[in-house]
């Protein structure tokens, strides 16, 4: 299952131990570019809007980037399996840096949004290819080390990003939040070009067409996937925000997306080497991990989107203190992820992930029982525990599923996992946003939504008691939904995932590491 062609040898052997350290440094820098992006931009929005205008559409600074990253993940995954990780990573990093430079010279909000989309087109390559290379460079026994380092990058970025963005916007200029990417990315590119060495691919294998020439890229499938994902994700991101859910634009986008989804199926079935191959969903292990990590994306929306508002409005914390309540999970997540290898070597990938997500479901449910208004240490403790639970959940699934496929399928597999997680976050933002606004409207007699309350808090206003209680109820409803999403992931792993992941023989160090 998922074996590689004989000509494909281990990337780590070609890279060498000394060079591998330099490549890992490059991967961490590349991941930092993607990880810092959202948090560093968010704190500079007031300065950007004050300079360029366009308040009514500024949300597309984030939505446009997210859409571009998400819909390109499957494409980059397949390209990295076809042409190798190095050219895809170099092209993606160069595109991201070009987008960053263009963002820094943007003359109005429309141009900035367009250039953010260019950034996102490169960001998709960064996220997927870095995770794939991490698996290429290390055998199964050592993969938790590199994955923990990458998790630490996300953790540090989550804490440092808002502060760095605020400092640059306040004391320099908001354009520096994009210019700062250039030296970081340049160092990462230099290290990759100089130190990453991949084996030569054998074009006579399954990646070649029937004439023995270089494999043809399924560009029709790539375009169909891009268009389909763009239409559906735009409908989810903007529905209930830019227009009502049942309005003409929303229905038109959903209808177009569904029609394009049917087109994707037709095109991919006819393609000799499809962008999204059918085996991604036919293999139990990969399908189960995709669905489980899609649920992870869904449940992560509850703390990342709604907890800061809860901390400010219900607990009465300042923005910095509210950010700390959220950020503590970035401390326990990488520590738990690093520890998870000792657990899954004893009880297996599936059972470790089930232990983590089962615990996460209970922790999310416990949020409903916090006293009103409560004290800051209570949600902080829950977030610390949640990070530990999710570290046990996510890393074993990523390491496990990457170990069930060979080199020539690892990029596609990794991209499918990340695509499902990103899609889960998009669906979760739309779903839980509707739930929160519905609860808030019912408690306040049909007036107001969570966005208006958040803007009032950002302007220095203080929510009245009735609004504070309504927000508490709305966030409780969201956390209940997140707990259900975690329970769903538990059931998916229990019923669909095999008890022992079918790890390939070349990745097995000891039989009990499965």
Explain this structure.
With 514 residues, this protein is mostly helical. It contains 20 helices and no strands. It has helices at 11-15, 17-42, 45-52, 60-83, 85-104, 109-137, 143-171, 176-179, 181-195, 219-238, 248-270, 279-282, 284-313, 319-327, 329-347, 349-366, 377-402, 407-443, 450-458, 465-495. Helix 2 packs antiparallel against helix 6 (109-137) and helix 14 crosses helix 17. The chain is globular, with a radius of gyration of 22 Å.
H/I helix tally: 20
Gap from first CA to last CA: 15 Å
In the predicted model, the low-confidence regions spanning at least 5 consecutive residues are 1-9, 203-213, 507-514
Order of helices and strands: HHHHHHHHHHHHHHHHHHHH
Rg from alpha-carbon coordinates: 22 Å
Q: What is the helical fraction, as a range of percent? A: over 70%
Helix- and strand-based class? mainly alpha
How many β strands by DSSP? Answer: 0
